[in-house]
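BUG-191 | component: ligand-complex export | severity: low

The export step for MTE jobs runs without errors, but we want the raw record kept on the ticket for reference. Input record follows.
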Amino acid sequence: MTKGTGWCALFAALIVIISIMLAGCTTGPANAEDDAAKDWRLTLNGTGTKVLTMEDLHSFPAVTGHGYAVSTTGVRFGPYVCTGVDLRDLAAEVGGLAPGDRIWVSAPDGYMWVFDTDQAEGNGFVTFNASLREIPSPPLRIILMYEQDGRPVGYDDGGPARIAIISEQPGVVTEGSAWVKWVDRIEIKRE
Ligand SMILES: Nc1nc2c(c(=O)[nH]1)N[C@H]1C(S)=C(S)[C@@H](COP(=O)(O)O)O[C@H]1N2
Ligand SMILES: [Mo]
């Protein structure tokens, strides 16, 4: 083996090693998110029970709007363009909503938030402008969001499925506590 081919082999080996490392960096986290979405299940409970996959969720009419939220500590998250499924469409799968019903939305970390039917219709939320001054609420929609800014919702953002409260126009801030992350259960409670 000449000196030249030795260097050439070493160089080739380096290229292979670097490629493998780069591939790990770029596809690793994306695959983890894909797996999370693949394993994800949503249990709907109303007059009956249904379990949906992410593929099922994508088969519902998609709704897109502007979402922007503020935490109790005044930290804002967003603004985002949010895409998902209207909560009423999910409720319809298990008997729909009747006046007085409550919608319990929960996650595996034990967090839960309750919406009433008025809110499911987009009313009765407290809203702020981007400077966190309270403003009269425009019509809103509660969605189970699976896409944020055109990409699947990442785990850190509460994916694969998170509650988002959206409006047609941008700049409407809602309370972050209702934006349930990692949603895996939606129950309709009737008195
Ligand atoms: N599953 C789950 N969702 C949750 C919470 C939580 O603790 N668990 N906290 C809520 C509260 S109080 C706020 S302010 C926002 C915070 O969102 P962030 O973590 O994206 O900033 O998530 C909401 N959704
Ligand atoms: Mo919060």
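Assignee comment: Attached the raw record above. The longest helix spans residues 3-39.
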